[in-house]
Amino acid sequence: MIHRHGTVTAAAHSLRYSPSTVSHQVKQLAAELGVPLLEQHGRNVRLTPAAEALLRHVDVMSAEWEMALADLGRYSETVSGSLGLCGFSTAASLLLPPTMRALNGKFPHLQTQTIEAEPAECFDYLLSGDADVGIVVAAPDIPAGGDDRFSHHFLIDDPLDLMVPLDHPLAERASVTIADTADETWILGRPGTGYHQLLMASCAAAGFAPRIGHYADDWNTGTALVHGGFGVCVASRMSRSQDLHPVRRIPISGDYAPSRHITAVTRTGADARETVAFTLETLTAETNRLMSSLGDELTD
């Protein structure tokens, strides 16, 4: 965790421990191994070369342990224990409840728990063992797909639809391109958020910089501002924000149409466990069913 977050304090926060507890555990491990694991770097600390070498072995051992659990599970007549799921708000509300129902039906002695969490937090829950499967959307602050500690399982590319007032000139269009919005006042997520970066990149690729009138990270807040006539925004196809604030949802087509890349993530090797493999299969089926029904609604 220190390697991922950069400081003992941040690592402790992600694990819900005190910094002194984490520091003590690291010092105790260093004494047992006979090598220093942390060194001073300015006002902070950083991992020593010995700690970096140890981490490479830990990642391998962690994956082997997950495979061992999968092998041992084949000799158990009853699947029990617990399985933790985590995901960002849209996924947590739409995908995780039906997945847990399926798990409870398939494995009646298994305890399941859901944690709503931002994508970066999901990786912390996976590493701490508080979750076994996380649903994340690609973002700058999450580990790269090549990180050996995790296995990514593609679920869906979630399109972002344009949200406009009901009386907007584009409201009667069956679809629009991102270039059609060049003269609009935009409601975007705050700078630095994945939502902001995704839309800015799409507009730049289409040859214009959006005129930003307001910032809103939440789909419901953005749609409420659209309903009030303050501009346009995009919202995830999976979101139901227009149900609260009546607006016109229009699919964005053509080049540079923005979408979110959504994956299910496990610790490396964990996807061999029967319960985790079933969870991934169920999430894939539920995601496909949901996106198909939402697409049908747009064409009705």
Write up this protein.
By secondary structure, the chain is an alpha/beta fold. It contains ten helices and eleven strands. It has helices spanning 2-5, 8-15, 19-33, 49-73, 89-94, 96-106, 119-128, 194-205, 219-227, 274-299, and strands spanning 38-41, 44-47, 82-87, 111-116, 133-137, 150-164, 185-188, 211-215, 233-236, 248-250, 259-267. Strands 3, 4, 5, 6, 9, 10 and 11 form a seven-stranded mixed beta sheet that branches. A two-stranded antiparallel ribbon has the order 1-2. Helix 8 links the parallel strand 7 and strand 8 (211-215). The radius of gyration is 22 Å and the shape is globular. The model has no long low-confidence stretch (mean pLDDT 86).
Q: What tags apply to this protein structure?
A:
300 residues; alpha/beta; seven-stranded mixed beta sheet; two-stranded antiparallel sheet; 10 helices; globular
Order of helices and strands: HHHEEHEHHEHEEEHEHEEEH
Head-to-tail CA distance between termini: 48 Å
Determine the strand fraction and express it as a percent band: 15-25%
Radius of gyration: 22 Å
Main sheet attributes: strand count, strand direction, barrel closure: 7 strands, mixed
Give average pLDDT, whole number: 86
- Helical stretch count? 10
Poorly predicted ranges (pLDDT <50, ≥5 residues)?
none
Please state the oligomeric state of the protein chains shown: single chain
Topology, number of strands = 11
Globular, elongated, flat, extended or rod-shaped: what is the shape? Answer: globular
The helix content is 40-55%
Family: Belongs to the LysR transcriptional regulatory family.
InterPro entries: LysR_HTH_N, LysR_subst-bd, WH-like_DNA-bd_sf, WH_DNA-bd_sf
Pfam families: HTH_1, LysR_substrate
Protein name: LysR family transcriptional regulator
